[in-house]
Design a protein that fits this description.
heterodimer, A: alpha+beta, Rossmann fold, five-stranded mixed β-sheet, 7 helices, globular, B: about 90 residues, alpha+beta, Arc Repressor Mutant, subunit A, 5 strands
Chain lengths: ~280, ~90
Amino acid sequence: MNTAIFVSFGGNVIRFSAEHPALLAPLAVHLRHCQSQTTASPLSAFHLTAISETWVQISENGSVLLPRLERESAWQILMQESLTRLNGACTLGPVFHAAAVQGEQGGVILCGPSGCGKSTLTAWLVLHGFCYLSDEVILYTGEGYISGFARSLVLKNGSAFILKCLTENIQREGHQRFSDGSLWLAPLLLQSIAPCVQTLPRLLLFPQYQPDAPLRVRPLSSAESLFRLLQNLVNARNLAHNGLEAAARLAHQTKAYAVVYSDLNAITAWIRQTINKPIA
Amino acid sequence: MTILTLIPRPTAGFQAQTLENEVVLLHPIQNVIIYLNTSGALVWSLCNGKRSVAEIIELLVAVYPESEKDIRADVQHIVQELMGRGALTAA
């Protein structure tokens, strides 16, 4: 008997299936907030087949993609593939490599490449009262809103101290540690409410974690913000004018800052203070 | 030929987006993204394939005579930089 889940983002759907629900269970948990009611015309259909207790095979659209790999590797690959395929196909608006959370006054975008500290900062903000949108990609729509791909937060080895803040929840379903030290953490472990669907962005931050650095904040002009946004735009080829005009709207609409930080409490306090300032 | 006699023009394929007197240039195929502050944006806007660098300097010095020395240095630097990045081509 086959079991399947459908995951959507940016107007497209991907199907994951397996012969046994246990093979899909981690994906079902960690992609639960991205699951789709729409099941028609998926971009890709991935199927997991158990070869043994340890090994699985991944097929895509009926052809073998990876013939033999460990289950944990298969889940990590499929989590990443879902993101890559859905982003790459999105035509609804610009998709940026960015995390996002929502505070009482609006959304906070944390934009930047891998390694700049987005996921750790996102987890910290969610743990301190912000609502989760995404730790990896956001979609900016023509109406001025952002929505996120609300998979579980993926924390790299070294960010697992976040777990120490969750001792009361850690026995609950929703976290998974991998042999490479990375950790998938369902947002419901960090907050009592489900991730939000979309929000109006209020702050656009380009964070850079630097060990032992004091908090340094530099306001960016709209053009500087656009310059940085374009470096993190992942679906330019699908968009009119390669996304330049749409990205410019986001840059013009949202106050932007370059932020260097090491102290999570300090940057959290600064974000709270800044997001609560009246719009000039 | 010195840089002053060059007649620069925007290279085909670059898209420009102006925001509050600053400009971002994008060449989607070559994946080049360039940020121009207000000075750079002004020079970029004057590079039309008809004016030489010397003429661009003259134009700006006529408007900002008190900054002649800076303008001479900055315009040449900006044009060289943009030619180096492929955004300007000698006409």
